[in-house]
Structure formats: structure tokens, C-alpha cells
Design goal:
34% helix, 260 residues, Rossmann fold, 9 helices, disordered N terminus, 6-stranded mixed β-sheet, alpha/beta
């Protein structure tokens, strides 16, 4: 049976239809790179559930497993052991074509470096994932997203004609337009000044509060993490603490213990 006809992929359904259970679920997930004496454990038995419409920041020192966690949760890589589900779909039941389809339909990505296509306008960059998937944009939803990120007057501009903050707004709109199960943001304010970064974090917060989006953000910045509902701290590939309703000061204080 092909991936496109598999029961697991058939369960993807419409992006706007609620599913039972957590939006993102990792159960006893490990990830080992290499083998024998050269084996490196990037994740060590992580179990974590993230609910629909939540904003979670993932923090930890260098080498703690933040990027590997993001790759596992978003279906960019497979765990060595354990299971991952996204939007109610068990990723282990998908072959590579199925994973690619899931990422196109159910996952939004926001990167530090924006990852826009230089030759395309902002409007075309926003709708590119849909076009690659052979889908047309829902015009009403597209208009709402464009207006929320404040790009109405910049849609005809190419990335080189936009500021860094405007480019990241394009990236956020691109992530939201397919109505994903979750948006994964990797250091989304890392290339921005403080004021612009605050605006971008406000947009991610609004995506959760006003649009019901689930957002998972890897960051090293306590101020960025304070916009989330919860901060998950990683160290040596394990979850060592979870902090609810974080403030920048509390996050910074906890990070000193994690890094120590």
C-alpha cells in the first residue's frame, strides 16, 4: 500500500478538525547518533505531551538536545526508539513519502534565517507550501493571516526589499496559512533586534491566543521564553524541569541551575 493510501495518512483529515489527545506527543523517545564507541545519545527517554492551542518554549544549554527534540517532534527525523505522534498521527506508521506529506500538510516551520525564496514575492512565499502540495489557499483565511501579521501593503515585495522583521512576518504567515497541527519555531528572533523580536514573539502569542495554534519554540532567550505558557528545560538529552507561566527572571534563574 502506498503512503498516500495508508490508513495513517488517511487519518490526517482536514487541518481544522480537532483530534483526540495531545497535539504533540513523545513517549520514551531516544535518539542515538553513531554506534559503538562513537555513539552519542542526543535524547534519553523523553516523554512529553503538548496540548492543542498551547505555546511551549524549549530551552537548555548547548548540546542539551533542543534541536534534536524539534526534529523528532516535527517529523524531520526518526527516533532510535520510542514513539512520536503529531496531530493524532503516529509518525512511526508513515514511510518517507508519508512523512513528507505530513510535514507539508500538518507542520509549520519558522527559522532564524527566515528561509524565504529570494525570487518570489512575499505573497508567493506565503502560499508556496500550498502550491507545492497542489492546494489552493483559502482566501478568507489567507486574508486574515496576512492582516494579522501586518503584511497587507508588502505582499508584492521580494525578501530583499523587506526588513528582517518583515521577512520573519512572511515566514510566520507561510507557517500558518496551511492550518498546521503545530508550528515549530527555531530561534525565531535570533537574527532580529530586540524591538523587532518582541513584535515577532507577540505575533506567535497572538497565533496561539486568537487562532488556537499550537506553537513549539526553541530559544536561548529568557525574554522570548516568557511569552510561552510553559518552558521545558532540557539537559543531557532529558527533560529536567517544566516551568508554568514563566517570567523572564524566573526562566533566567532556572537556566543557571540547568547549565550548572
Amino acid at each position: 500500500m502506498s503512503a498516500l493510501a495508508s490508513p495513517a495518512l488517511a487519518d490526517l483529515g482536514e487541518k481544522s478538525v480537532p483530534h483526540p489527545g495531545p497535539t504533540v506527543s513523545l513517549v520514551d523517545v531516544t535518539k542515538v547518533y553513531g554506534s559503538g564507541d562513537n555513539a552519542v545519545s542526543a535524547l534519553r527517554g523523553i516523554s512529553l505531551e503538548l496540548t492543542d492551542g498551547s505555546f511551549t518554549a524549549v530551552m537548555g544549554p548547548s548540546g542539551s538536545g533542543k534541536s534534536t527534540f524539534l526534529h523528532m517532534a516535527a517529523g524531520l527525523d526518526r527516533p532510535t526508539s520510542g514513539s512520536v505522534s503529531l496531530g493524532g498521527v503516529d509518525l512511526s506508521k508513515l514511510d518517507e513519502d508519508g512523512l513528507s506529506r505530513l510535514r507539508r500538510e500538518r507542520v509549520g516551520f519558522v527559522f532564524q534565517s527566515f528561509n524565504l525564496v529570494p525570487s518570489l514575492s512575499a505573497a508567493d512565499n506565503i502560499t508556496l507550501p500550498l502550491r507545492l502540495d497542489g492546494r489552493k489557499a483559502d482566501r478568507e483565511w489567507l486574508d486574515e493571516v496576512v492582516d494579522r501579521v501586518g503584511l497587507r501593503e508588502r505582499l508584492a515585495h521580494k525578501p530583499g526589499e523587506l526588513s528582517g522583521g518583515q521577512q520573519q512576518r512572511v515566514a510566520i504567515a507561510r507557517a500558518l496559512v496551511p492550518r498546521p497541527a503545530a508550528v515549530f519555531a527555531d530561534e525565531p528572533t535570533g537574527a532580529l533586534d530586540l524591538r523587532t523580536g518582541k513584535d515577532i514573539l507577540g505575533l506567535l502569542r497572538e497565533a496561539v491566543d486568537a487562532l488556537g495554534q499550537t506553537v513549539v519554540m526553541v530559544t536561548h532567550d529568557p525574554v522570548a521564553a516568557s511569552h510561552a505558557d510553559e518552558v521545558v528545560f532540557l539537559a543531557d538529552g532529558s527533560v529536567v524541569e517544566r516551568l508554568q507561566s514563566p517570567s523572564a527572571d524566573r526562566v533566567a534563574e532556572r537556566m543557571t541551575h540547568v547549565e550548572g
